[in-house]
Amino acid sequence: MTEVGTYVYAITREAGGSPPADLTGVGGAPVRTVEHAGLVAYVSTVPLEEFGEEPLRRSLEDLDWIGATARAHHHVVESVAETVPTAPVRLVTVYSSEEQVSDLLARRHDDFVAVLSRVVGRREWGVKAYAARETAPPPAEEEPTGGDGPGTAYLKRRQASLHSREDAWRHTAAQAERVHTTLADVAVASLRQRPQDPELSGRTESMVLNGAYLVDDDRVGEFTAALDALREREIDLELTGPWAPYSFTALDLDTAGPEAPDAP
Amino acid sequence: MPPRISRGAAPAAEGRLPPQRVALVDLLDRLLAGGVVVSGDIVLSIADIDLVRISLRLLIMSVRENETAGWEPTTERETRYEPVWK
What we know:
- The complex is a heterodimer.
- Chain A is 39% helix and 24% strand.
- Chain A is α+β, with helices and mostly antiparallel strands.
- In chain A, α6 packs antiparallel against α8 (220-230).
- By secondary structure, chain B is of the alpha+beta class.
- Chain B is flat, with a radius of gyration of 17 Å.
């Protein structure tokens, strides 16, 4: 018999409900619930031959596999979050049994309740800002090699151009900061993620802001109006969402934290 | 999975949100860095895996050579981004 694990997608407080009848998760498996003390975990069964540590190491090198898994995970989280306040669980979290999941709900009951109460009536929005024209961070200045005449003139021109690029970059960074501060003001919580790698963002322009904002549902209009008021020629703003509150439920349980095990 | 018209229909109706599916990179931003993290008695969690060799992770999380002035360039492989609550 194939060994199986229990894959956990999300935690909610609405006991007694049931997942949409046709809701499927990773690998097309049906999603079911595990309930304990008023908390609900949405789970499905996964084969350990695919989700054990060694196979997973290989799978995580495979962008197609990651994409399919991430979309399946997200699909379940979104389906649940559409109707009830939801704490998404990090991608690829697998337990050996349902009993372990019940046990988690029992032991961390108060933490889950606290996290879930903070996201009631709120959703996450993402805002990415790109430098509208190609404003790369300036390269390190080269040492002038001295000399007079045309060489010096060239160096001066070169320095002037470096300075103007540096100024442009600083200006863009300051704008990004202003966008973030303004939006954070409308939101109940905010954070900045590392800008996405151009190889993944699919944009050649530099990303200068990758922000997440937890916004009260009744202030979304205000939030988008604030965003629109910030639109300027030099900076291109992109709104994504609404998302389940992924960035605001990053609760660490029974763990030293998500840092790499061998981190200094 | 078919495209789904998600919540936030009002902004979408105003043409703010692209109707196409969520970009994978935006999804991974959230699925790899956000959400509840559990380990301990668990079979497996992504947090338990040594991600050094994971090319995708490196691609996403790599510290780019040119960090913006004014942002703290980080040399940690795994940065914790802590939300700021009002």
